[in-house]
Every structure is written in C-alpha cells, then in structure tokens.
Amino acid sequence: MRLLVFVPLMVVLLTTSASARTTSPQAPAKFTPADIQAFTSAVTKQMSSERVPGVNVGVWVPGQGTWVHSFGLADRKTRARMRLPLHIRIASITKTFVATATLQLVDKGRLSLDDHLGKFVKNIPNGDKITIREVLGMTAGIYDYTRDAGFTKRFDRNRLASWSPARVLQIVRKHGADFAPGQKVSYSDSNYVLLGLIIEKLTKQSVEKVVKARILNRLGMKHTSFPTRPPIPKPYAHGYYAGQNGKGALRDFTAINPDLAWTAGAMISTLGDLRVWGQALATGKLLKPATHAAQLQFREIPNPGGPYIGYGLGAFNIAGFVGHNGAIFGFNSAMFYLPKAHATIVVQLNKSTNFSGDATAIFFGIGKHLFPDQFKR
Questions:
Q1: Is the pLDDT of residue 8 over 60?
Q2: DSSP labels, 151-204
Q3: Residue 365: in which H helix or E strand, if any?
Q4: Helical H runs in 52-162?
Q5: Residue 191: other Cβ atoms inside 10 A
Q6: Which domains does the chain have, with CATH numbers?
Q7: DSSP line for 40-60
Q8: What pTM was computed for the model?
C-alpha cells in the first residue's frame, strides 16, 4: 500500500530508442518488432530477477500500436497460466477511487478542500489545522499505521485477522503527528482510511457502495470490486509473498482480510478495467474541470537521479504520466496514462511485499522505451 521510491538502480532502464513507425490508413497502427522486443525484455528481466510467477501487461498508444500480453503462471501449484481476464488485488490504486469519491463530494458542495479534518474526525493530532486538501495530497503529517509494529505482527500472525478503522485511529493518536501540516509530502495509508470515514459520514452509505455507484457503474467497470471478505472473485490469479526482502520461499498469500487495507488498498480489478480507469482518472471524466485541475496540482517528491515524481490529490505524476501504483502482500500493480500522447500502460503481477516496485519497474522500462524524452530531468 505504501509509496515506492524510484531511483535508477531499481528500474529496468532500456536504452533502445523508439523506432520509426509507419501506419496505413487501411490498417490499425502496430508496434514494431523492436518495440515488442523491448516490452518483452522489460517484463522478463524483472520476472527473472525478482522470481515473479506471472505478469499481465497492456500498452495502448494511439497511432503507434496496442500490445496486451500475459507471462508466466497464475497458480504455481496447478501450473495454470496467467491470463488477461484474471482478477488481481490492486492495492493503493484503491486510493485513486477514494480520492475521486471525495472530490465528487466537493463537486456536490458537501465538502470543501479547505475544510479541516477535525470537523469530521475528532482527536487526530493537528486535526484542527489539517485540511482535506492536505489529507488527499499526503501533506498532512499523519502517522502511517502500516509502520506500526503492532500492525505488522498482527498481519504476520494471521492475514485473515479482523481489522477496523478504529484501530487505525488508535495507532494514529498513539504516535502523534509526523510533521506540521503542509510541511512536506509523506505518503501515509492512514490518510485514506480517514477519507473513507468522511465519505461514509457525509453519504450515510458504506464507501464500497459509494465507489460502486458513483464510479464503477458509471464507467461500466464490471470486473472491479471493493471487497468486504477475503476471497477474490473468480477467475483470479494467486498472489505470492517471499518475506519482506523478497528472497524467501514463495508462500501463497491470495486470501487476506480486506479490512487490513480498506480505503487505502483493498480493491480488486483486471487489466482491461484498469485501462478504462487510468484514462478516466487522468482526464477527470467524473469531476468538474476546476476540481480535476486541483487534483492535478502535484507537489514534487525528491527523487535524486531519477525522473520527476509528484503527488496530487490521490494521483502520482511520474515523468508526465498520471496514475498510481500499488503493492500489497501477494500482488503488485501500476496504472499510468500520458495525457499528451493519450497513452496507457498497465502492469499487474502476482508477487509482492507491502512495498515492492516490480510492476512500476516494468512500467518504467516500457515508458522509457516509448517516450525517452519524458524521463529526462
């Protein structure tokens, strides 16, 4: 669920330049063999170095081509192959849905970005100073509950253990503030649990129902869900965990209690649905123009030696690509859209810790090949 820091050493960097492409008015554009070789190399190198069982990847660039492919295994026990329609936990990409649901309340006049957190949730350190804008934008200074030793121990003992927002509030209050509101960008899963509570307070509905009615149904995303129980909808890929260093024996972590992540990272989706959502998120399809413009006011995250990284209101900007990534025990995803080229890149894979960056590394490799100028500082 946590933020991934990007430096050149963790990214698959391909030096091959984008090849010249020719199109015919009679036929759709296709990527060149050199393009496909570069895409495949970005995937297989990461799979090999990090022992990733399976990957789904899609690349859609108008005027250049479409490439959608599956690699490896969805289930190591049965040797079932990875397939495009399989459901996968999308971890922190959940935050983009929760941010959009929050901003829709702003559009309806039910909430202001300048409202203070303390108006809705009491006794949060600095809550009477923190604004909703700062909660959305990761500048609130709220302690991240996933850093708490108690959270990790509980999960390690039983990944199906019950959890609740009340526990998150206890942890946040116990640790106090990390820094004064607005001082810097610091990724915190606690922020989005608090936003979930605010959504439910203002709508009088569960956040799962709000996201389904106001986002998924409107976009026809039939293969995306906000689960309240551990099972993943069929068909699904199994997820694997190899310890926090990623080097241990691969263990099946497919089933986890979604309450552990809730509005910070519980949702499930498919490659095709994330293509739809990536474009809708980046273009503000479900928001008023002014609200979407506020969402895309990014604050830079220091990334020495790497490309620009900024965080807006529930979205990353990485080298001009707008979207989000996600890591949760067993599954890893990256979903990014480049507005200037109307290009979408989505990667999903089935091995992860809570901090892994393998899907993002594959996105980097493909993105850098297609749009090398975007990755120059």
A1: no
A2: HHHHHHH-TT----HHHHHHHHHHH--SS-TTS-----HHHHHHHHHHHHHHHS
A3: helix 358-370
A4: 94-107, 132-136, 149-157
A5: 29
A6: 8-19+27-375 (3.40.710.10)
A7: HHHHHHHHHHHT--EEEEEEE
A8: 0.92
